[in-house]
Design brief:
- This is EAL domain-containing protein.
- This protein has 284 residues and is of the alpha/beta class.
- Helices cover 43% and strands 21% of the residues.
- A hairpin with a 4-residue loop joins strand 3 and strand 4.
- Helix 4 packs parallel to helix 6 and helix 6 runs parallel beside helix 8.
- 38% of the residues are buried.
Length: 284
Amino acid sequence: AKAAGGNRYEVADADSDARAIARHDLTNCLPGALDNGEFFIEYQPLVRLADGTVRGAEALVRWLHPVHGVLGPDQFIPLAESTGLIVPLGRWVLEEAARQARAWRNDDSCPLPLRVNVNLSPAQLRYPSLVAETVAVLDNAGLEPSALCLEVTESALIGADEEELRPLRQLADLGVDIALDDFGTGYSNLSYLRRLPVSTLKLDRSFTRGMQCAPADPVDVKIVEGIVSLAHTLDLSVTVEGVETGTQADHLRILGCETAQGWYYARPGPPERLHALSLADASS
Ligand code: C2E
Ligand code: CA
Ligand code: CA
Ligand code: CA
């Protein structure tokens, strides 16, 4: 990871740095990192395609490692998952993100009530106190459940039975929005979607790469068209990640996708920046 001037960080590609940093080195210092306050969260705006307004943000965790600098989640989340640290780390991310959402909402200059999206790992889904703790976090932050969206990857849910889905269903019944993350990469049976307590499909960026420049790849257009139509039939909204160009955003808006996230709007950044972005679109 490298500092990109000022207090902005570029999170390095997992492939470039991760191999260079010995795995055992990270494993040794991961447990202490939470106590040492070495994790921080960047927020990436979620934009409503119809009018370009910022509606919320996804919380993306980073580790400011005392020796290696800023590490991206791809470099330590798998490790946190295999060591079980993901449960306390995930709890911390949720608490922090809820606190941040409260702060945005308390700010009277914020034109819209911003929501926050938090990623959930499979191990957190299996954690028995997930529902109780999530409810407690929302209560403590004074946040209504609909201000929170939990993102669960498609691959984490493939094959889950009703018992395993129960905590998510309970959260959904309370009003928490559940998004199916990285949709389209898990090769799930589409009819399976009907059984899931999700309200949003988060379409993986691999589907929209072909729309970055004009003319758009006609096959990609057809695929996204099909997914949007399926999603809307099931009463799901569609968020597209990895939107890097205006051309792409235009296509996705015309195709009926509701929400977009990507570098075209903003890279992940500090929470104050989200506030500034939401102010900017209110005054434009
Ligand atoms: P994700 O949930 O699919 O998050 C989106 C990733 O795409 C983020 O990478 C984001 O920085 C990146 N991205 C956003 N816009 C663009 C774009 O326009 N182009 C491209 N090429 N990339 C874009 P990041 O921050 O490295 O996070 C990687 C993954 O780590 C996330 O993928 C998520 O699965 C996981 N993750 C992040 N934070 C947490 C967390 O708190 N808990 C858990 N369990 N997983 C997390
Ligand atoms: Ca996500
Ligand atoms: Ca994703
Ligand atoms: Ca993805």
